[in-house]
Amino acid sequence: MAKKTASFICQACGAVHSRWQGKCDACGAWNSIAEESPAAVALPAAHRSGRKGRPIELQSLAGSNESPPRTQTRIEEFDRVTGGGIVPGSVLLIGGDPGIGKSTLLIQVSATLARAGHRVIYVSGEEAVEQVRLRAERLGLANAPVELAAETNVEDIAATLSQGRTPVLVVIDSIQTMWTDSAESAPGTVTQVRSSAQILIRYAKQAGAAVILVGHVTKDGQIAGPRVVEHMVDAVLSFEGDGAHQFRILRAQKNRFGPTDEIGVFEMTGLGLSEVPNPSELFLSNRDRGAPGTAVYAGMEGTRPVLVEIQALVVPTSLGTPRRAVVGWDPSRLSMVLAVLEARCGIKLGGHDVHLNVAGGFRISEPAADLAVAAALVSSLSGAVLPGDNVYFGEISLTGAARPVPHGPARLKEAAKLGFARAVVPDAKAKERGGKERDGGAPPIPLDVIGSLADLVAGIAARGPRRATRAVEEA
Ligand code: TYD
Ligand code: MG
Question: Which residues bind ATP (predicted)?
Answer without folding.
Answer: 96-103
